[in-house]
Amino acid sequence: MSKTVSLINMKGGVGKSTLTVNLAWHLSCYTNWMKKVLVVDLDPQFNASQYLVGVDKYYDFINDGKPTIWDVFEQHKRTPNGKNKLVSPKDAIRNVVNFKGGGKIDLLPSQLELSLSLKNPTQKPELLAKLLKKVEDEYDLILIDCAPTESVLTTAAYLASDYLLVPVKPEYLSTIGLPLLVNSMTDFLAEYDDQSLELLGVVYNGCSGYYPEEQKSKMEVAKLSAKHGWDIFDSEITYSRSYPKGAREGTPIFRTSYVRTAQATKFREFANEFGKRVGL
Ligand SMILES: Nc1ncnc2c1ncn2[C@@H]1O[C@H](COP(=O)(O)OP(=O)(O)OP(=O)(O)O)[C@@H](O)[C@H]1O
Ligand SMILES: [Mg+2]
Q1: What is the pLDDT of residues 205-246, one digit of tens each?
Q2: CA of 7 to the centre of ligand 2 (A)
Q3: In what order do the strands lie in the sheet with 199-207?
């Protein structure tokens, strides 16, 4: 049974895309996991797509005439000749890497035009869940990288997910973004009263351990989490310049050049905890 997890926070720049891509790598190629992972890029800024495949290959994907996540949200609109342009998951999903142990990463890429769909009052949030249902047997894990702003894409992510993972940078502005997520979840559950939303947990990202502000923010997050019954991951992800460097090199943290072992180990601990919590 595949599990679908959305990485979400209504605050930008907290590490949603970085963690999506690094989790996909770790859980597909690390000996203990070797899982089949699909990354769904649900952000019009397409960071996860570019991080996973690099700039050149990304534009090959966008220009090859095959559908992307944008087409998924446009497929219900009829073409002038009345034909429906239903997106086939086989066309839209691209293979990124296969590992000898059986693990792999596939990608449903995003493109900037997805932002045009957000202006369209007829888009349907359930289209993503419907598409993923057709391929869920082929994967152990589906990771959805969300955009930081509330839109039909947020509803689409909620409808498609078994769990939500909330990365939080322990700093003031990040903390005040969390109530927006609470509002978003509450609004969703009011509209879709047959659905549930399960929070896998909050994970602290970009921790240094030194600043009093960090401790203060963690206390605020812990208070809010306790109020809503949210778990906080035992493992924390440290601040490391290897994350942006890895994005440039197209590598996960554990393959980034000159990465410090301690930093890579911290991520591995988090990824292992994530895998266990999801039940992979
Ligand atoms: N643990 C970390 N240590 C250092 N830099 C990090 C860490 N995690 C993420 N970053 C960097 O922070 C920036 C923002 O990260 P990322 O793009 O993953 O956030 P995001 O939540 O996906 O942002 P957005 O809301 O814009 O989609 C990137 O430059 C990334 O390389
Ligand atoms: Mg992002």
Answers
A1: 999 987 888 999 999 999 999 999 999 999 999 999 999 999
A2: 9
A3: 94-98, 104-108, 36-42, 141-146, 3-7, 163-168, 199-207, 237-238
Residues at CB less than 6 angstroms from ligand 1: 12-18, 43, 45, 47, 148, 205-206, 237, 239-240, 243-244, 247
Q: Which ligand is nearest to the CA of 49?
A: 2
Q: Among 11, 17, 268, name the best residue to mutate to test ligand 1's pocket (greatest count of ligand atoms within 8 A of Cβ).
A: 17
Locate the domains of the chain by residue range.
3-278
Cα–ligand 2 centroid distance for 166 (angstroms): 12
**Residue 116 to residue 64: CA distance in whole angstroms:** 20
Q: Choose between 259 and 279: higher pLDDT.
A: 279
CATH class given for the domain over 3-278: alpha beta
Annotate the chain with three-state secondary structure: CCEEEEECCCCCCCCHHHHHHHHHHHHHHCCCCCCEEEEEEECCCCHHHHHHHCHHHHHHHHHCCCCCHHHHHHCCCECCCCCECCCCHHHHCEEEEECCCCCEEEEECCCCCHHHHCCCCCCCCHHHHHHHHHHHHHCCEEEEEECCCCCHHHHHHHHHCCEEEEEECCCHHHHHHHHHHHHHHHHHHHHCCCCCCCEEEEEEEEECCCCHHHHHHHHHHHHHHHHHCCCECCCCEECCCHHHHHHHHCCCHHHCCCCCHHHHHHHHHHHHHHHHHHCC
